[in-house]
Each structure stands twice: as C-alpha cells, then as structure tokens.
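Deviations from the work plan: none for this task. Representative record:
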Amino acid sequence: NAGVTQTPKFQVLKTGQSMTLQCAQDMNHNSMYWYRQDPGMGLRLIYYSASEGTTDKGEVPNGYNVSRLNKREFSLRLESAAPSQTSVYFCASSEGQGRAFFGQGTRLTVV
Amino acid sequence: QKEVEQNSGPLSVPEGAIASLNCTYSDRGSQSFFWYRQYSGKSPELIMFIYSNGDKEDGRFTAQLNKASQYVSLLIRDSQPSDSATYLCAADSGNTGKLIFGQGTTLQVKP
C-alpha cells in the first residue's frame, strides 16, 4: 500500500521556469491538499480539493495552479518559478475529516 | 495573525517528564482538531484528533480541547528521547474541510 506518492522528490529550477508537482493517492480519499513548509512557518495550505472536480484556495495560493485530474491525482503547477517559492512541498489526502496522510515531500529550490 | 497559533519553542523536558504542548485557534466555526508529529526531514504523521470538549487519551498521549477558550493542548506522559520532534496543531477551518496548521512546537526530550 503506497499511500500518497509525490514526484519528484527533489528539483532545482531557474527563475521563470515552470514545472508541475505530481501527487497520487491510493486510499480512495475524497480530500487532497497541497502545502508548503518553510523554516519556522509550519505548514501553509496552498490549495485544497474536497472532491474530484473541485478546488479551493488556501492561505498562500498566489503563483500556483492546481488540477484535480481524478479522484487519485492532484497536481500543483508553478507557471513562472520565483526564488520565494523555494520550499518543501507536501501533498496530503484525507477521508474528509482532517485525518490526513502525507506524501514524502518535494524539495524545490529556485535559483 | 495566523488562524492557528503555537509557541515555536523549543520546549525542553527531561526524560520521564510530562510534556505539555499548547495551541490556540481563532475560528470559532472550527470543530475538529488534530496533532501531527514531524521528525526532522520527514513527513507529518497524525498522532491524535479530538472533536469534543474535554480530554481524549491514547496511550501516553492526551489531547485536550476547550472550545470556549479556543484552546487545544497535547500532553505526553513519560516523555522519551524518541518523542523529540516538531508537533503541529491543526484545525479544520470553519468546518470546511480545509486543514490549517500552526507553525509547530519543537520538543526536545533530554536523557
């Protein structure tokens, strides 16, 4: 049972480049989340999806877009990466009551 | 002001002592509260959740919720060095399904 799988694990981008972070879960959860984690800031919600076909902004959505492709997959896209987007990104899924399971994280550096 | 607030610490306790971690939240609509543990370089994992006022015990962990005071706490009895980690408090924002985290409290348990 893989749980929540994120790809890639590490990425270095140049300023202005674009990329998509992929996330897939095999637990049949309805809710999925994207967070970023910076030192001393805890986890900050970027986007949230309550179910397939729905997405909602979180605390820090600027500079990001998301797609809930199907029930399993929830991708996060950076259209024009900036150094301020250097962070660790976590995808999570839950059965809808906040009991979330997290992926292993993607360490993104924008130079 | 963040919706969920924690003291970032570090909180240092001797082995065998009780560690007390605290969290406050601002949205009175929130109904569900969670404690996640995160080891350095790893993903957060759920350790406790609480929905009703009062105490909830699970092994060495006790979660406490006081909705009138908008206060959540986590007690760890008989603290062990393996409990050294960052503890993240989270709330289901306005009962919408959006999971909002505090900045986390670093706990150090000294042998």
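Chain A has a mean pLDDT of 95.
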